[in-house]
Amino acid sequence: MLTLSLLVLLSVLALPAKASSVTSSWQSWPAVGDATLKWGPWVIYDSELRSPSGRYLSQDHDLALVIKYRRNIDKDDLIEATDDQWQHLGISKAKRDKWLRTLSQIWPDVKKGDRLIYVLQNDQGRFYRDNRQIGVVQDREMSQSFLHIWLSPNTSYPQIRQQLIGMR
Fold first, then answer.
1. Domain ranges, residue 57
2. Domain Chalcone isomerase, which positions (predicted)?
3. pTM of the entire structure?
């Protein structure tokens, strides 16, 4: 006769696994592509796009954008550059202002060697500084629009887009 604890263990093991509750860590995702942003003679950052499969399917799938800074950059300058890119992509001033307020509460000043990582997984955006989470973006449109800065066909950086999505 089986003991009660063994029956409980067997019943738990027999339960179907819920795929939606188990998510892989972005750190283990393979790289899709990488690129370096230069401005004149200065290297600003190195970037890498990762996905669970190691392939770029679209901006609507789980992705991680890893940016390693090669210069010190003030948070206000990061906010201003993001605003410029969103304006270039045609995002309304009202949305930009709202989203930039959110980013100003999340982003730090970055130092040479810092990594800021943006992970879009299950339609939720999360920011990390190195491997420590520093903020969450619940707004799906904002999450997508942040990645559009690099991944939209209308990006200001078409060569970086091509390199990131693995189409060198």
1. 26-164
2. 56-166
3. 0.82
